[in-house]
Structure to design on (334 residues):
């Protein structure tokens, strides 16, 4: 099955779970900005968690399906429609051959993930299909999608083929049929344009003045227009060090909050560099990475402090919910 790109949207790229094992060579991880929405979309169509999806940012694409397909759209609400009829999010959807999926305005969130049963098939580069835009590798020719591009999906898993047959049998004249079930509320992230983000103290927390420490966990920050998949620059209180200290570059991760000399924090995201030389005031809890990933320039965020033990417990709880969802979906697709 192939997908033809009629309109590419603002920024639509192929992403998977990330390119791991090469940071020691200076190659970034990349991967989906919202790992929960990416995984959920794959689970809903019978794929593996890490299979490649399309990450659609703010304005989605127009895509034509050349054969019947099983899809799922999770994450931001970019007003997806087929033949003018709204397509539900967080559910498996049978799509008829020749149907065109279009997107309207962004109602909520920033990034939406389209999974197709069989996964988006692009060349594997260093164990990943993710697009690394700055290096021009991975994904579809190392770049965002363009009009006229053609993407291929892999072979249908047998369970997915059964689901297609089941949903197609309920089709009348429409171009798509959604399943009656989908992801439950216990797994849906609490997306918000003004989220409260849970974070732990960073490696250099003690380097910051008491006033800066208090401001970080008590005042609001606005996401700057100078933000992208590499990092969000935050506008708000200026954070200062007790004294200027040289820092040897060290490892950073998704959600690291580092503070350059001018005192404006930067939240490192999926396309972050492999090491950083700025003091790190905080580390966002992994469970809240989807919340920061679904914000956009102009949104306001606040941070609240939690302990490492609390962050680990929350992540384990999320993983348990995903495991339960996987079992339920396998039962539905069977």
């Amino acid at each position: 099955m192939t997908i033809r790109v009629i309109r590419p949207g603002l920024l639509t790229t192929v992403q998977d779970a990330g390119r791991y094992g090469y940071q020691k060579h200076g190659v970034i991880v990349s991967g989906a900005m919202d790992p929960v929405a990416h995984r959920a979309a794959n689970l809903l169509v019978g794929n593996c968690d890490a299979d490649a999806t399309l990450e659609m940012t703010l304005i989605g694409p127009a895509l034509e399906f050349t054969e019947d397909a099983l899809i799922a759209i999770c994450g931001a609400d970019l007003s997806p429609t087929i033949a003018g009829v709204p397509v539900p999010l967080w559910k498996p959807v049978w799509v008829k051959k020749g149907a065109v999926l279009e997107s309207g305005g962004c109602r909520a969130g920033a990034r939406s993930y389209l999974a197709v049963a069989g996964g988006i098939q692009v060349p594997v580069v260093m164990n990943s299909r993710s697009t690394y835009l700055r290096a021009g590798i991975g994904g579809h020719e190392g770049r965002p999608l363009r009009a006229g591009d053609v993407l291929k999906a892999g072979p249908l898993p047998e369970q997915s083929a059964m689901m297609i047959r089941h949903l197609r049998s309920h089709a009348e004249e429409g171009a798509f049929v959604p399943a009656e079930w989908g992801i439950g509320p216990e797994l849906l992230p609490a997306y918000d344009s003004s989220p409260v983000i849970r974070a732990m103290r960073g490696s250099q927390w003690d380097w910051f003045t008491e006033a800066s420490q208090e401001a970080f966990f008590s005042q609001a920050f606005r996401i700057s227009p100078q933000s992208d998949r590499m990092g969000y620059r935050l506008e708000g209180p200026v954070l200062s060090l007790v004294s200027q200290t040289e820092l040897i570059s060290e490892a950073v991760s998704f959600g690291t909050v580092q503070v350059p000399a001018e005192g404006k924090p930067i939240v490192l995201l999926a396309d972050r560099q492999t090491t950083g030389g700025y003091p790190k005031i905080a580390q966002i809890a992994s469970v809240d990475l989807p919340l920061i990933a679904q914000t956009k320039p102009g949104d306001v965020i606040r941070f609240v402090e939690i302990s490492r033990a609390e962050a680990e417990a929350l992540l384990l709880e999320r993983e348990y919910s995903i495991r339960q969802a996987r079992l339920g979906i396998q039962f539905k697709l069977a």
Remarks:
- The longest helix spans residues 308-333.
- The domain at 196-315 is CATH 2.40.100.10 (Cyclophilin).
- The helical segments are 35-44, 158-168, 210-216, 289-293, 308-333.
